[in-house]
Amino acid sequence: MARRKKHQKLPNGFGSIKYLGKGRYKPYGVYPPVTEYTSKGPVTPKALAYVETWDEGYEILAARKLENEGKIKIQNGVYIDRTPTFKEVYEDFYKEKYRNELREGKKKTSSMSSTQVAFKNSSALHDIQFGQIKYKDLQDVLNACPLKHSSLELIVSLMHQMYKYAIKYDIVDKDYSSALFIPIPDDDESGVPFTDEELKILWKNKDDFVVQMLLIMCYSGYRIKAFTNIETNLDGKYFKGGVKTKASKERIVPIHSCIFDMVKARYNGKNLLGCSVRDFRNKMYNTLSSLGIANAATGARHTPHDCRHTFSALCERYEVNENDRKRMMGHSFKSDITNAKYSHRTIEELREQIEKIKTPFII
After folding, report:
1. Is the four-CA dihedral 199, 204, 206, 211 of positive or negative sign?
2. How far is CA 29 from CA 3, 47, 55, 271, in A?
3. What residue numbers bound the domain in which 294 lies?
4. Is residue 361, in this structure, part of any structural domain at all?
5. Which of 179, 251, 306, 340 could disulfide-link 333, Cβ–Cβ 3.0 to 4.6 Å?
């Protein structure tokens, strides 16, 4: 095995160049001289840059020394800043995030696909050095993106994760993604509940694997994506978790007695959907079409989110406590501090409320 070249010792006060190990596109970190000390020893300063070779690092430190001596003036961002590009950071981030899947040669997961799509939709940033990207550059990507709210959510999530990664590895020291916002309304919240007649048709076909999942969603209020990772506790007869908001991710929803046997029969310790979200959507559309209820009364095609609207409508019809409906749907109490901070409901109290929903269509 070839040994790395031994380099000259750098003079005192010059700075340092550290080899950070294999597997990095730019394995050398370039650091200014140490100026801070604690009882535990010297504090390593923030890196000036990450480079491919030791010689590049030496050039940066030499130029920095000349500038400090007033002999040259370096235009910031042109010479000194050699942070990797957005694309290079993404590639290293992706390898780390999905290292197990990549090492084991597993089939591409929906999470991996979503990450790749979000990166593709951020193409305006690909060739910009990560250290040169500012808040406006990130927000401009969102403002210019013509896609739906859900696609923008994936972009924002990727940016959050990449900045967390970049800060961890001292590529940058500030998270410009923290203040990002999605500039369009959340179209995912729109939907039409299933009518009584449509619910009756679903219950008549409750032995169908896809229909079972639709009924589980209609009587639990969860978004379709949540079923890929929520906790399903069969002993306690409840779901726990969710997606999107903090309130949603922390909620507990008792499993309604009318769907418990379905949940128990299909639960294998993993994804209740039994497939990816995309595949389930396609199966749902085909199934509803074969049952003659593909479209709502409005003419719009029924979507998985209509199940969430159905749950909300059922709660309202059977007079489920309004605050408990919010809790089970993962809605925040916003400015209602009393309910947000001081109201605590047990699983059995929530179960009493959800069981108010009657199921007259069960045959």
Report:
1. negative
2. 19, 6, 12, 42
3. 190-354
4. no
5. 340
> CA–CA separation, 181 vs 162, rounded Å?
16
Same domain for 107 and 174? yes
* pLDDT given for residue 188 in this prediction: 57
- Residues 331, 232 within the same domain: yes
pLDDT tens-place string over residues 166-204 = 999 888 888 999 999 989 876 556 789 999 999 999 999
171/337 Cα distance (integer angstroms): 40
Q: Rounded to an integer, what distance in angstroms lies between the CA atom of residue 313 and that of residue 307? A: 10
- Report the predicted TM-score, pTM, of the whole model to 2 decimal places: 0.54
Domain-terminating residue out of 132, 165, 188: 188
Distance CA 93, CA 87 (A): 10
The CA distance from 59 to 55, in Å, is: 6
154 and 200 share one domain: no
199 shares a domain with 94: no
Which residues does 246 contact at the CB level (< 8 Å), separation at least 6? 332
Distance CA 225, CA 239 (A): 14
